[in-house]
């Protein structure tokens, strides 16, 4: 079993239990959720998915997604031979980083930045709140609608001819409306 995994270009060494499948998926999931809750990320903002079973190495995967201040963070592992081992790898990385935060070795921002979703060009994709032009912590739908209308007046296709930018703005509003209502 591979004891090195890559997180955004950094190699992390992990230790696996000598007894395969000694711990269950539920146990590793609990470790992940408990670790993230220690730094204030509630379980309703955390999602763990996995698939591929215990078949061939290239068919097994696990993916952890969580949201902090409206920004989606993601970690995917498909380097192990079965789901349990992929989830175990994720739990070890997350638990290790949370310990680093709690001990003051890393800042919260450093850890979260290494898991932010980036566009293929290397640039971070804008969040819905950034597209509309409000703070990442804004939860007031009325203020978001106000800022949306201001931005829509500036970028409306009748003025600029840019239909894509207006569509992104509309999609961002729909996503925030769904999240906040």
Descriptive key words:
about 180 residues, alpha+beta, Double Stranded RNA Binding Domain, three-stranded antiparallel β-sheet, two-stranded antiparallel sheet, elongated
Structure write-up:
This protein has 181 residues and is an alpha+beta fold. It folds into 2 domains: 4-113, Double Stranded RNA Binding Domain (2-Layer Sandwich); 128-180. 45% of the residues lie in helices and 16% in strands. The protein is built from 7 helices and 5 strands, in the order ββαβββαααααα. The chain has helices at 25-38, 83-102, 108-113, 128-132, 141-155, 157-160, 163-180; strands spanning 4-7, 10-13, 46-51, 61-68, 71-77. The strands form 2 sheets. The chain has a 3-stranded antiparallel beta sheet with strand order 3-4-5, covered by helices on one side. Helix 1 runs parallel beside helix 2 and helix 5 (141-155) runs antiparallel to helix 7 (163-180). The longest helix is centred in the middle third of the chain and has 20 residues, at 83-102. The termini are far apart.
Name of the CATH class of the largest domain? Alpha Beta
Number of helices: 7
Count of discrete domains: 2
Using only C-alpha atoms, the radius of gyration works out to 20 Å
Distance between the termini: 45 Å
CATH architecture of the largest domain: 2-Layer Sandwich
* Helix share, percent: 40-55%
**Proportion of beta-strand residues:** 15-25%
Which residues form runs of ≥5 with pLDDT under 50?
none
Give the beta-strand count.
5
Mean pLDDT: 83
Q: Indicate the CATH topology of the largest domain.
A: Double Stranded RNA Binding Domain
Main sheet characteristics? 3 strands, antiparallel
Order of H and E elements: EEHEEEHHHHHH
Globular, elongated, flat, extended or rod-shaped: what is the shape? elongated
Spatial order of the strands in the main sheet? Answer: 3-4-5
Helix/strand structural class: alpha+beta
């Amino acid at each position: 079993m591979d004891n090195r995994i890559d997180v955004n270009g950094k190699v992390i060494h992990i230790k696996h239990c000598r007894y395969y499948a000694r711990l269950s998926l539920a146990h590793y999931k609990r470790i992940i959720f408990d670790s993230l809750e220690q730094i204030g990320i509630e379980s309703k903002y955390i999602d763990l998915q996995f698939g591929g079973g215990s078949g061939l190495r290239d068919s097994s995967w696990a993916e952890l997604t969580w949201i902090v201040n409206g920004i989606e963070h993601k970690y995917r592992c498909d380097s192990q031979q079965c789901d349990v081992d992929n989830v175990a790898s994720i739990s070890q990385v997350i638990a290790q980083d949370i310990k680093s935060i709690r001990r003051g070795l890393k800042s919260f921002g450093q850890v979260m930045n290494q898991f932010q979703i980036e566009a293929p060009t290397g640039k971070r994709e804008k969040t819905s709140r950034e597209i509309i032009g409000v703070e990442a912590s804004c939860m007031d739908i009325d203020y978001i609608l106000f800022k949306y209308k201001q931005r829509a007046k500036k970028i409306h296709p009748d003025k600029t001819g840019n239909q894509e930018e207006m569509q992104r703005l509309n999609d961002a509003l729909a996503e925030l409306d769904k999240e906040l209502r």
